[in-house]
Amino acid sequence: MILLRYNDFSTGGELILKFYDYPIISKESSLPVFLVSVGLNEWQYHVKCDKGDNYAKALYCTKGSGVLIINGEKYIINPYTAFFIPAGCPHEYYSTDESWDTHWIKPSGKSCPDMLKALGFDKPKIFPLPKEEITYLDHCFRCMHEALLSDKVDGNFRASGYLYSFFIELSRLAAKGKGSVQIAPAVTKAIAYIDENYMKQPGLESISKAAGVSSQHLCRLFRQTLNCRPMEYITKRKIQAAKMLLAETQKTVEQIAEETGFCDSSYFCKIFKRFESITPSQFRNAEQVLLNP
């Protein structure tokens, strides 16, 4: 671990200039995803990897500017920009002024490629970060460092948990940066209508009317936002309500099927198992063990 600090005379405290954390990998290598290294450069030096890095790398900056060269293309990296570099991808980056900072992390693990792909990080990526929403991302980043700093034995277990949260948040901000997570008002209205009427099995036409759009357009919005059609969402909403009743009440499966809008208990059990891979009774037993150990 390399750690440089200086006094912040305006606050009387300390600010970190630079740190590089390279934890000794031992037991955490059995985790699906774990942290290999994390670091902060207040003044980024010139980096050139003609053959790429052994590990994927995610970076973000909050001040200054620099240049990233990847796949033969040159990009200007301005404040509040993040970029992702896959393992083995040749790249180069350097500062164009004296204040370009970079925060970087490197993940690994047998499930790391699948996690990165699922979150949209399977190829080089550059995107802006909403300045007003970077707080949690920065929190996860700092917590990785603090976990390693405070515990030399099990710190990387905690840090690896924060790493997962970091990439979830980075993916969310990447989507927001390109405007793809703005939820259409019609979807919000449709969900509110379904919440009030799911037990009555509302039809697509009535949901579309409540949302103020055509049925075809509503289906398209649901696929874009929730990756399912409105009628499938209703079924999922029913199952959600059924889970609450199974876990928190002693009502029979027949009563719960009726209250959540399923035509009969056998159909309810069939649909529940299709979505949850267990029967309602098995779910109830498992939840009661958790709630009453």
What does this protein structure show overall?
The chain has 293 residues and is α+β, with helices and mostly antiparallel strands. The protein has helices at 112-118, 135-150, 155-177, 185-197, 204-211, 215-226, 230-248, 253-259, 265-276, 280-291, and strands spanning 2-8, 13-21, 34-41, 47-49, 57-61, 66-70, 73-77, 81-85, 91-95, 102-108, 125-128. The strands form 2 sheets. Strands 1-2-3-10-5-8-11 form a 7-stranded antiparallel β-sheet. The protein is elongated. The two termini are 42 Å apart.
Largest sheet properties: 7 strands, antiparallel
Instruction: Give the fraction of residues assigned to helices.
Output: 40-55%
Amino- and carboxy-terminal Cα gap: 42 Å
**Class from secondary-structure proportions:** alpha+beta
What general form does the structure show?
Answer: elongated
| Number of contiguous helices | 10
Gyration radius, in Å: 24 Å
Q: Would you count the extended β strands for me?
A: 11
Q: Strand sequence of the main sheet, in spatial order?
A: 1-2-3-10-5-8-11
Kindly report the average pLDDT value.
86
**Stretches where pLDDT falls below 50 for ≥5 residues?**
1-16
Strand content: 15-25%
One letter per element, helices H and strands E, the order comes to EEEEEEEEEEHEHHHHHHHHH
